[in-house]
Amino acid sequence: MAEKIIMLACSAGMSTSLLVSKMEATAKKDGVDYKIFATSAADIDHQLSQDPHPDVLLLGPQVRYMANDVKKKTDNAGIPMDIINMSDYGMMNGENVLQAAEKLLGDR
User: Fold this and answer.
1) CA pair distance 14, 53, nearest whole angstrom
2) CA 37, CA 16: separation in Å to the nearest integer?
3) One of 6, 7, 8, 10 is an active-site residue; which one?
4) Which residues are CB-neighbours of 79 under 8 A, at least 6 positions away?
5) 10 catalytic, yes or no?
C-alpha cells in the first residue's frame, strides 16, 4: 500500500494526467511510494468520502475559482489543500509539484 495518497483535481482530470506521470517518475527516483492520481473537480466530494481518502489535494490552476469551497471540505476532512503553481503546471514540472505536495504533507 502506498505511503501517501496525492490527489490532483482539474476541470476534467485529463490535462493533469501528464503531470501525474511526471510526479510519479520523480517519486520513483526519490524512492518514495505515493499513490498519485488525477480526477475531475466534480469528483472531489466522492474522493474525500473514500476510505482511504487522499492525504493531500492539489487543485489545477484552471479551477482555482473553486478553492474557497474546496478548502472548507478539505478542512472538514483534515486534508491539506493548495493550488498548483501556474508556472509549474504549464511546464508540467512534476518535481516542483511533488515537492509542494510533500511540503503540505510535512514530508519535506
Assistant:
1) 20
2) 9
3) 10
4) 48, 53, 54, 55, 56, 57
5) yes
